[in-house]
Amino acid sequence: MAGYGKKYQVIVVGAGHAGCEAALAAARMGCSTLLLTMGLDMVAQMSCNPSIGGLAKGHLVHEVDAMGGEMGLNIDETGIQFRRLNMRKGPAVRAGRAQADRMAYSARMKLVLESTENLDLKQGVVEEIIVKNYRVVGVKTREGLDFLGRSVILTTGTFMRGLIHVGMKNYSGGRAGEPSAEKISNCLRSLGFTVGRLKTGTPARLSSRSIDFSKLERQPGDAIIRPFSFMNDKIERHQVDCYIANTNEKTHDIIRSNIHKSPLYAGVIEGIGPRYCPSIEDKVIRFPDKASHQSFVEPEGIKGAEMYPSGLSTSLPADVQLQYFRSMVGFEQVEIMRPGYAIEYDFVEPRQIKATLEAREISGLFHAGQINGTSGYEEAAGQGLLAGINAALQCREQDPLIIRRDQGYLGVMIDDLITQDTTEPYRMFTSRAEYRLLLREDNADLRLTELGRYVGLVSDERWRRYQEKTGLIEKAYELCRETKITSKDDRLCSLFGLGELKSGVTLEQIIRRPDISIRTISEQIPEMTLLPEKVLEQVEISIKYEGYIARQIEQVERFVGYEKVIIPDDIDYEKVASLSSEVREKLMKYRPTSLGQAGRIQGITPAAVAVLSVYLRKKSREK
Amino acid sequence: MILDKDTIIAPATAVSESGIAVIRISGYRALSFLKSFFRTKNPIENFQSHYLYLGRIVDEDDSDIDEVMVVYMDPPRTYTCEPVVEVHCHGSRQIVRRILQLAYANDIRLANPGEFTYRAYLNGRIDLVQAEAVSRLIQSTSEFSRRSALQQLDGLLSRQLHSYSATIKNLLVQTEAWIDFPEEDLPTENLDRLFSTAENLHVQMSDLMNTYRAGQFVHDGATVVLAGLPNAGKSSLMNALLQQDRSIVSSVPGTTRDLIEQSTQIGGINVRLVDTAGLRSSDEFVEQEGVRRARNVVKIANLVLLMLDGSAPLCDQFRALLADLSAVPVVLVVNKSDLLSEHHDLSFFPGPIVTVSAKLGDGIDVLTDTIASFLLNDYLPSSESPYITERRHYEALTGSVSSIKNFLNNLGSVDLDLLSIDLRSALDSLGRVTGSITTEDVLDDIFSSFCIGK
Ligand SMILES: Nc1nc2c(ncn2[C@@H]2O[C@H](COP(=O)(O)OP(=O)(O)OP(=O)(O)O)[C@@H](O)[C@H]2O)c(=O)[nH]1
Ligand SMILES: [Mg+2]
Fold this sequence. Notes:
- By secondary structure, chain A is an alpha+beta fold.
- Chain A has 4 domains: 2-198 and 346-455, FAD/NAD(P)-binding domain, CATH 3.50.50; 205-344, Elongation Factor Tu (Ef-tu), domain 3 (Beta Barrel), CATH 2.40.30.260; 479-551, tRNA uridine 5-carboxymethylaminomethyl modification enzyme MnmG/GidA (Arc Repressor Mutant, subunit A, Orthogonal Bundle), CATH 1.10.10.1800; 565-622, GidA associated domain, C-terminal subdomain (DNA polymerase, domain 1, Orthogonal Bundle), CATH 1.10.150.570.
- Chain A is built from 21 helices and 22 strands.
- In chain A, strands 1, 2, 6, 7, 8, 9 and 20 form a 7-stranded mixed sheet that branches.
- The radius of gyration of chain A is 26 Å and the shape is globular.
- Helices cover 44% and strands 17% of the residues of chain B.
- In chain B, the strands form 2 sheets. In chain B, strands 3-4-5-6-2-1-7 form a 7-stranded mixed sheet. In chain B, strands 9-10-8-11-12-13 form a 6-stranded mixed sheet, sandwiched between helices.
- In chain B, strand 9 (260-266) and strand 10 (269-275) form a beta hairpin.
- The radius of gyration of chain B is 30 Å and the shape is flat.
- Chain B starts with 6 loop residues before the first strand and ends in a 5-residue tail after the last helix.
- Chain B has 15 helices and 13 strands.
- The interface between A and B is large, with 53 and 41 residues.
- Residues 228, 230-236, 249-251, 253-256, 277-278, 335-336, 338-339, 357-359 of chain B line the site of guanosine-5'-triphosphate.
């Protein structure tokens, strides 16, 4: 085979949401980086719903952004409808969500890749990972080229041995209209990896010209757009509407009477699908009492006609799809532009990677995105970013970066991946974060910008803005603690509903009251009026939720204590007496790096953790 | 802590001269013990797990010890999840001792109290609640304790605690679903329903929590102190309660000097009865010291029987004494009912009052009932309702109950997100005894109860 000549430091395979972030991170950190993709026109594709964010996913986007990733900027630039969810359920569970112009999203990302220094974007199908002495040295492509590099990041999405199902018909493909990657996963198998199979699905795309929108409920975007990226203060843009459609009993009858044509029910599909994203046939069968299922009908772009009907993914044959769509109000004349389908693909069980996303057994090989059994663009982007960072750190011979569970959803996700069995594609939920109140969208910048700066991903401009913000927050706190309202200010007293005051109260005390917002106060206090909204927001949340936040911080301290008890990599569990064989097996399988992590592995009892802790203590005393 | 791989042996039943005794062996030497000392028709290699085989146990010299039945149990389907052998022999102390000694001589050691259970627990066979109950059984002395321990063992308490935890989990599932899936058509937020479920739960859990004092006395026993002015009849009552002549009685005030203690059972509870010196100021050193000791022991009493000589008028010293005792639970015992001439207005005393004649034994049974019902907190355990004897269980419940209280107080005034923190901590507190409920468990329930999916 022909060598390519140029030697890279980081090679990224696949230019999806994980691959793009990985390549950008590595290149921006100064590593010569190659991004290989099967199709140059298919960069950062949204294979499923044309939207970014939502609960927990919006949090991830903010974190990626805070560390200097691209996703937030990209969606801010190409979003066509923005909404914030859960505004009345608490500060930590508010989340942004945006509809993207799918083509624009991809085009902008490609442009960014093309204009990033140190980064080569090339088309090529990788067929083999070249490994020497348990160390990755490069990749071989179908075109006959060997690309050499110090590290390789695999972000293969649904492409590894992808198999598309439409009814009983199935064919190989990585995504509708694109070929699959047939050889990589076999190469991984021969390298000793355990490879599993998962399934996911997507609904049909409908032509907007054939939908009677007057019969559907309209759902507009927010009047004021809150950007995802810390770098953007506001977005002023014309927004498009989404719509809400509903299935009905007739739809369900059609599905039920055709259920035998579903490969899922006929047992043709072996991969495991996500519980949180069941196909419409699943919903109808599993919840027979539900008379109707809701679908958000989302435009895929400003200009095109394609509409994405959420919640209606399916593997039923195309003619049945058309039949049931047409039973729905507003869809009587609907035309399907692309049929929905289910797809099975290979993934590599993530217990085989470390918290750095590097493979345990092959150094320099990193996995990010769906190859780790996750789903979702945001989950992929987060892993891509961290894999890119850690690959680059390795090239620079620096310590790896691991984000803890109390620092970000990024940390929660990766810790979950390496300590839990993959029983379905992993999606982030806010309930997965035990320190949820601390991991908010609004403070992602405060949590992670410094880490991003430390690894070298945070630009000077971002750093300047960050320092300005933290400075203002400090100042605002001081103001709130020191400004007192006394009974002399009777106008303010009555405005803030303070009643009779014996002694003065500070602004902080007033903000603590549940019925009063910091906005009401800042309007009246000249020094505060000038403070930016986002600064006031931080101060308000910290003051109003002080008690709860303090409690979580206390828990974090305890948690970090367990995280700090390191389990040496060469521990011999056979020597730890009193562990049941089942526990011992689990520990050997997952090889936790800390006592805390051991405790999170399913089936590891508190007693086992106690035994382990006694053993480790004994060991360390012997030294 | 047991941190080794020893094979252990112990009688599994009380050895009584009648009937059958069961000896249990656990560990990897269990089977080789059988191979060496059990003689039977089938070769031991062909034994099936969990089947009874008839044969003889012989000693080192191949002479018979007893005709026995043995059962060999393959792990992990055994009590300890280790290889287990049970030998059913005749219930003679002599035979049991010889079998045990045979084992000791062959690298099998006597199990520590509760060690089988501890192993079962370490190997994940039983939960902590059950494990502790078993160890209680080993230690329990009074009849009441045994009943309490047995009740937990068969999982009554365990079941109850698990059902609380399931209810809290449900509340959490509901709130987490509303939080994480705002765009799904879930049932609308119904805080009233959450409230009434939580309120109901709060009542039930508090009730169970309140059984702790009773439970504690059942297990640990209680200290009951007799106190009063000199000559009130304390020593006479002590003897009457013990039905034995334990304390010196005389008509001279200041007879009792030191603390006199004796254990007895009252209402099935182990009670340490303490007779004390009559409380008065005295110049005499020994009596002074007696009074000091009396005052000290009163402070640690679970219950004080304050005696009043009913034949004498109420005096200021007595009122002062009563005031001193305001911090401890007191039963007022009016003695010498056979003489009772004075009519005392005792309505100022809020607690139980019992009139007795220590000398004649009148009213003693009313008094023991009063003591018992105080110690049992008016809680008479029926076989259906569990109660708490473990401090750890009590603390877990207390933690959980207070989180639920917070949840109830906060519902409606704070955000869902924060409510879930209260629920989570209620669940985690209980989880310390029932085993923890993970996020995965909660998500499982969300997906099986609600139709979610974009
Ligand atoms: N008639 C009558 N005499 C009683 C009764 N109980 C005790 N006495 C008498 O009261 C006197 C004092 O009894 P004790 O039991 O020694 O009194 P005490 O409270 O222990 O006295 P000190 O130890 O001196 O504090 C004795 O002469 C008893 O016989 C009773 O119920 N009826
Ligand atoms: Mg006496």
